[in-house]
């Protein structure tokens, strides 16, 4: 069954007004999109900022009469004219019916990181059966390897000697980094995330890779026991990384390693300065404006 889409470009302060108009007209769902390539990388906690140029889209079932629905919206808009600085144009289109889940699955391909490691969708065959192959279904959590920060971390992990190491994956998402560490030889991973769905996705992906349950434990942050890991990885954001610096540093043994990402290139100096209290920091690795920073825990004096 095809769907109908009606879009309108508005400033962010009008978003709620036009969402209400579309819902009143009978749309099944409303989405917001950036109309001017204005990324918002790190919003304040508890906020959901919109872009300066925002497109609001209403999705309507095919049984809606397109002409009638547009007329209804335009009439309602005219009645509110006194409250609006401008009256943007509604644009309508028919959305072809597709199996959207299948469409996404078909576009997600195996990816190689470094010399040994592949990340493969769980529904595809591994291209190199003898390589280190991680079978992954991101499910409800972030982390597939397609984002530059995840790719930078996976390539770094591929180049490390991880045999028999205790690893902490802080902000584990789908579990991609922690499970990669296990497949590359780590003994055990403590996976931590604020989102219970991420912990579920991580355990599902652990099972998908036929790794023993005992190889990885999942925790919400306040429940995670303190360990002194050989390696801690945290692919989150600069703000939380700065706030959590003492906590993360305390979970790495002297001589152990830390790997930080989720960072923009202009945030390198701040992160390096913050973590240099505890670590000898390496030169950042960079891709597409994103960076990865690693370091070695200083010996206690």
From TrEMBL:
Its main location: cytoplasm. It comes from Marinobacterium weihaiense. Transmembrane segments: none annotated. One of its GO terms (biological process) is methylation. NCBIfam families: prmA (TIGR00406). One of its GO terms (molecular function) is methyltransferase activity. One of its GO terms (cellular component) is ribosome. HAMAP family: Methyltr_PrmA. This is Ribosomal protein L11 methyltransferase. Methylates ribosomal protein L11. It comes from the Bacteria. It catalyses: L-lysyl-[protein] + 3 S-adenosyl-L-methionine = N(6),N(6),N(6)-trimethyl-L-lysyl-[protein] + 3 S-adenosyl-L-homocysteine + 3 H(+). It is found in: Cytoplasm. Pfam families: PrmA (PF06325). S-adenosyl-L-methionine binds at residues 150, 171, 193, 235. Its EC number is 2.1.1.-.
């Amino acid at each position: 069954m095809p769907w109908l889409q009606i879009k309108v470009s508005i400033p962010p302060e009008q978003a709620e007004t036009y969402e209400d108009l579309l819902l009143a007209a009978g749309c099944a769902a409303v989405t917001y999109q950036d109309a001017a390539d204005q990324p918002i990388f790190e919003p304040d906690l508890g906020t959901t900022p919109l872009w300066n140029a925002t497109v609001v889209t209403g999705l309507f079932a095919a049984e809606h009469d397109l002409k009638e629905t547009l007329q209804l919206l335009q009439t309602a808009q005219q009645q509110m004219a006194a409250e609006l600085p401008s009256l943007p144009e509604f644009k309508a289109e028919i959305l072809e019916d597709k199996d959207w889940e299948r469409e996404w699955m078909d576009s997600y391909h195996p990816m190689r990181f470094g010399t040994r490691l592949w990340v493969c969708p769980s529904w595809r065959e591994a291209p190199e059966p003898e390589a280190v192959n991680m079978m992954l279904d991101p499910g409800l959590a972030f982390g597939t390897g397609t984002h530059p920060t995840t790719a930078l971390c996976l390539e770094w992990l591929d180049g490390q000697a991880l045999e028999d190491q205790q690893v902490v994956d802080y902000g584990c998402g789908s579990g991609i980094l922690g499970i990669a560490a296990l497949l590359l030889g780590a003994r055990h991973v403590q996976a931590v995330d604020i989102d219970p769905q991420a912990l579920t996705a991580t355990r599902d992906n652990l099972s998908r890779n036929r790794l023993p349950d005992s190889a990885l434990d999942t925790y919400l942050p306040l429940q995670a026991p303190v360990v002194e890991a050989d390696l801690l990885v945290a692919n989150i954001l600069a703000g939380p990384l700065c706030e959590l610096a003492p906590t993360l540093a305390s979970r790495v043994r002297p001589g152990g390693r830390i790997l930080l990402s989720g960072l923009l290139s202009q945030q390198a100096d701040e992160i390096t300065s913050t973590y240099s209290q505890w670590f000898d920091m390496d030169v950042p690795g960079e891709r597409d404006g994103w960076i990865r920073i690693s370091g070695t825990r200083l010996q206690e004096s």
